[in-house]
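Let us practice reading a record.
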Amino acid sequence: MSLAPTRLSDQPLPAGWLRPLAQLPGVSSLSSARAGGHSVAPYATSNLGLHVGDDPLAVQRNRAEFERRLGMSCVWLDQVHGNRVLTVDAQTLRAQPADGAITAERGVGCVVMVADCLPVLMAAPEGRAVGALHAGWRGLSGAGEMAGQGILETGVPALCELAGCEPADITVWLGPCIGPTAFEVGAPVLEAFGVGQQEPHPAFRLLNGGEAPKWRADLHALAHARLGRLGVRHIHAQGDCTVSDPARFFSFRRDGVTGRQAAAIGRQ
């Protein structure tokens, strides 16, 4: 992975883009939105996913713009809705199958792509180590072969071990994702989180009963609960719903064929 010298742009970010943890010294973070890129419909304009059918040259230009604004090159993962977290550095190959990355090396960006799933950024005290996690409901719950060991249960301890700190010391940011008014789920999702169908739960609201009941699920609330159980205390959230805001965000649930936005963090 080439790590040519880069610098943060002195120009304003495109509409909808954020610097989520700008208050932390020594850390650069970035959350993208639809605007500010080179792709055309249905990927217009700043699609960062190479796997969705977009023109690869346009995606590479978009990624280069994203990395320029972050101020460093990123390790782009092949996300598989699992719980694997890589420790990355300047020599790490891109497109490895994983749903999270952490690093203690300066100038290396940890990045995850989303289009309804929850992006999670993490930083240890003094920015000693940072990480990014991709948390859809499967990765968040630890469904299937992961047997309850979700991406947060993998990523938070890995970051703490790398930085030599405790979960209570780190700062976590939860980004835009499918919101609780748009995320309709069935019983298998409740089962994945260990919630009974008759059990009241703050993250699940019954939408309709009968033989095939449906609930509305709150990914932010589910992540908050799991982070709390892990001992994380410093949590910041950007609660925008990707489905409900087509002007700002890509959404797979809404559009089917669409692009991907990203969230990234690195040590300056």
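A brief commentary: The chain has one domain: 27-179+231-267.
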